[in-house]
User: Fold these one by one.
Assistant:
Number 1:
Amino acid sequence: MTTTRSRAERAARARTAAPQLAAEGIDGVVFGWVDNAGLTRVKSVPLAQLEHAAEYGVGAAPCFDFSLVDDSFTRTPSSTGPTGDLRLVPDLDRLTPLAAQPGWAWAPADRYTQGGAPHPGCQRGFTRRAAEAVGRRGMSVRAGIEVEWVAADAAGTPAAHGPGYGMTRFVEHSDYLREVLNALTRQGLAVLQLHPEYAAGQFEVSVAAEGPVEAADTAMLVRHTIRAVSARHGLRVSYAPVFSGGELGNGGHVHLSLWRQGRNLAHGGPGRHGLHPEAEHFLAGVLSELPALLALGAPSAASYLRLVPSRFAGAYRCWGLENREAALRLITGSTAEQANAEVKCFDAAANPYLVIGGVLAAGLAGLDAGLQLPPETRSDPATLGTADRLPTTLSEATDAYEKSALLRKALGRELYEAVLAVRRGEAELFATRTDEDVIEATRWRY
Ligand code: GLU
Ligand code: MG
């Protein structure tokens, strides 16, 4: 699990890393973090500044806790507007030379106050705290986020039109996809699969499960890498929830499994499909909190144009073995290691740290309360008169989030309120806009 290190330890790591990076031809290091709207923000330093940056961080305006998808800012009582400063501190444990951006390396960043304390609004810190809470119960979570994207040409038109999962698309983009695969692999990522998805120009990569913070870091790195490879092929990338109205969108499905002492609790247990009691309680906690969790995992007004029935997006609050229209799909896999649950209702606009941390917090609450899963949904929930539809607008999801004492406590007041303000701000931003306007305004932002 990632740990926080002292200033002296961080500086020492930078002193060791810098000559190695220089020998590899690296000139600068980019530090990434994801804001509450789901946009990845970066700052970079030349290699000569890495040690200072690792020790003290680089300046980061606190107002980015309140930035909306259009780069405007909202406020909360604890926001300081244009004043104040935070320190963006790279985690050099995850320092990665970027295969598709020669001369550059990347590291995910934690945010600290100027005094050196963890910033309570730091999303990565939230995921770390949630992972530690699981650890205190003698368990661990392994997670992974699938990355779907639309590749478009310079004019913004989807760059492949062949059938979903089609060989045509794969052949047309053979060199591009090979480079995506190689760049990810050279960066130490364990790619599991790469395929053309259903929507025009859409592709998907999945990577192996890891610890919660690592999985969120990986989601950021995978997306960054795909974008960089695409740029080298003259392609633009969209991770927006919806690229074209009426088509399948870009999901950000979260896979997770709960482990105790090297044993996957989603396999070989006495419960339904081999679930151990702890795994069932955990998943029941996630299922129960889904309407509020949507404010973390489906953060945009555009998210609700994706999250509709019959688009494989998981628009119903139910669970089922290999049920791709259920928000929670149980997967038994071919081996004990592979058994996991997939939360399908989340999309690619989500901040991966918020979504994984939120799911862990909900799962733990389910565990503590001993919640049971309801009866399984074995068919398309849209065909059942009884199915429980998830929120259908950003406002509705935000209302559920506002009522969630669980998420309020888990996120901590400052982060919870900042997310709330950003969701309300975006709901207001798009309140009077048509669906097409919302898609247009978000298509190239994530
Ligand atoms: N693109 C779909 C979504 O929006 C998911 C397709 C699939 O992988 O089943 O979630
Ligand atoms: Mg997919």
Number 2:
Amino acid sequence: MENSNNQPKKVVYSGIQPTGIITIGNYIGAIDNWLKLQNDYNSLFGIADLHALTVRQNPAEFRARAMSFFAQYLAVGIDPQKAIIYFQSHVKEHTELSWILNCYTYVGEMTRMTQFKDKSQKNADNINMGLLDYPVLMAADILLYQTDLVPVGVDQKQHLEIARDIANRFNNAYSPTFVVPEPYIAKQGAKVFSLQDPTAKMSKSDPDPNASVAIIEDPDSIMRKFKRAVTDCETVVEIRDDKPGIVNLLTIMSAMTGESMESLAAEYHDTGYARFKQAVGESVVEKLRPIREEYNRLMQDKAYLMSVAKEGAEKASYLARKTVAKVKRKIGLVELK
Ligand code: TRP
């Protein structure tokens, strides 16, 4: 596919693990941007279900959550006509390439990874090989599609670095085989903080349910969480460094309404926190309403969801097979003809 300058479109790959919930923080910080990406790039969105296996999952919940994430991607506006959206586990080349790339990755590189060290501490009773190997599977995700750009947050930067190292190592050992991916620095969507601790990022896996809001959450629950949002002991709505709770609420409301934080701060300066929080909650409920409705509709139509998943997997496999064939040839595996 080509764009108007007759340059081939660049490839963008993004993955999300189907764990926790998709929050308004993800929505404001990242998803909005993906919707633009799908117009300008050949984009792939993978549900990284194999990555999620590195932590023990309850099978029924895991399956339901993976389907739910897939439906949420569609509900927010990822368009399967424009982007390839699929489940990682449906494209067996991910695991196939990841084995090969394992043989080009050093154990020392993996044990040094910050996330591995963190997760090993948190899951001390289950430090499995997958946890160690996680970055190699991620490198396979990216390199399989000759990806040019990967939108990553700070927590995944180190993993992208390793993907680049592996690609360069392979290319140098044989001949250019993989595109060496670059981080895609998104026009930074606003950063959203926890409603219970406005100095910590809103997390998709926060154990405190009041800390984060899901994009498909029901209106009553959304309103309740905003009413309980932690602020400060003053009464004025102002943008100040010592008012992180209020600034967070303004950030959220600004993203939801398109109005600037400054004008919202002026409007709610003296209304008192109760009314302000109510207004923020309502702005979130209204903005998410069409997403929630579309999500509910999609979840009633499993046949449609499966057909999109199947088509996504077929399109992804077609591309992935080409890369794997090339890799196998280069390293000297016998081809079956
Ligand atoms: N590891 C990423 C995360 O937890 C998810 C992911 C898997 C990913 N494969 C990817 C992200 C490939 C970017 C590219 O956020």
